[in-house]
Write a structure and sequence with these properties.
CATH architecture of the largest domain: Alpha-Beta Complex
Radius of gyration: 20 Å
Strand content: 15-25%
CATH class of the largest domain: Alpha Beta
Oligomer: single chain
Shape: globular
Structural class: alpha/beta
Number of domains: 2
Distance between the termini: 36 Å
Helix content: 25-40%
């Protein structure tokens, strides 16, 4: 969908809905990443440009590294109940409704009309209207294509939000999802006013000191197995408190152990202290589809990057997932 400049018929119903209704809310998954925040903001700013009333919510606060984006302060905590005037609730960058959290799911299910805009090929098509492109590098790519389809001129705040979405979900344009079309998109965003040096500094070069504590913890306690092809680390309940770190300091930890030479699959297991275990999976080998592995355990995502939330205890969840990974890795030998 995002690979050419031709008209996109799949947007027809979406554009009609955006024109028809006046009161919108935009939401994304909890523990939001750059694509979640950037896509929420880009969609919200587009709706405001169209003269619509829009609210933006998330179950979790905007991570500090994205707080510089225009209108980031407008992403507020979830309301206790769906406001009576909200006609349409749009969910961006969430492949499964469970990813937005139980409270948000209640709001979503009560909305008169719902829209799902996403780029995960495992998307469950949970809304009234589903705009899903599993081949897009980021949800921001889909929203960029929508903005172009509507003939709306990119403002600098829109461009910065979209650049953040696309930059972060492509690993700063390092992943295989970085196609010529993605680079042309980035160029268009730069032409709209994005300061590449400033945004990259804010996203990638302003890491809080507490995050280095978690990185040290991971490097000191990671496990490497299967002749170096699998790396993993487990964060038990209470460990974050002992280290004096928060949830934001635990983001992207899997990338630390993914880059080791020879590793095909990297995994982080995090005990969430509510009976659930958060699992982050990354693959460096196209033959190892971690979305398929995640799917075996109730998760999903992309072929090279996926996640799971599953019942603990931590040790049991770890062995279940690792056994699935070991089976795939050994089949490649």
């Amino acid at each position: 969908m995002t690979e050419n400049n031709s008209s996109h018929p799949m947007f027809n119903d979406l554009i009609q809905a955006l024109k028809q209704y006046e009161h919108f809310a935009v939401i994304s998954h909890f523990r939001p990443d750059g694509d979640a925040i950037g896509s929420t903001l880009a969609m919200g700013l587009l709706l405001r440009h169209l003269g619509k009333n829009v609210q933006m919510w998330n179950a979790d606060p905007v991570p500090q590294r994205y707080a510089f984006l225009a209108a980031a302060g407008d992403i507020t905590p979830l309301p206790l109940a769906l406001p009576a005037d909200v006609q349409v609730l749009i969910c961006v960058d969430s492949g499964d409704l469970k990813r937005i959290g139980n409270e948000a799911m209640e709001l979503f299910n009560k909305a008169p009309f719902t829209i799902n805009i996403d780029h995960h090929h495992t998307n469950t098509r949970y809304a009234t209207l589903n705009i899903v492109d599993g081949g897009a590098a980021a949800c921001g790519c889909i929203i960029h294509a929508l903005i172009r389809e509507m003939g709306v001129s990119l403002t600098r705040p829109m461009a910065e939000a979209l650049y953040t979405a696309i930059n972060t979900d492509t690993g700063s344009f390092q992943y295989s999802s970085t196609t010529p079309a993605v680079m042309r998109m980035a160029a268009e965003l730069i032409e709209a006013g994005v300061d590449v040096g400033d945004i990259n500094r804010r996203i990638w070069q302003e890491i809080p000191a507490t995050s280095f504590i978690t990185q040290r913890e991971v490097l000191n306690n990671m496990v490497v197995e299967e002749q170096g092809s699998i790396s993993h680390y487990s964060m038990p309940a209470g460990r974050k408190a002992e280290l004096g770190v928060g949830p934001e300091d635990c983001k992207d930890l899997v990338d630390i152990i993914r880059v080791m030479q020879g590793v095909k699959v990297a995994v982080i297991f995090e005990d969430l202290e509510n009976g659930l275990v958060r699992v982050s999976l990354r693959s460096k080998d196209p033959q190892v589809d971690v979305s398929a592995i995640a799917g075996m355990h109730g998760g999903g995502g992309h072929c090279m990057a996926s996640g799971i939330r599953m019942r603990g205890p931590l040790a049991d969840a770890r062995e279940k997932v690792l056994n699935s990974i070991r089976a795939v890795v050994r089949s490649l030998s």
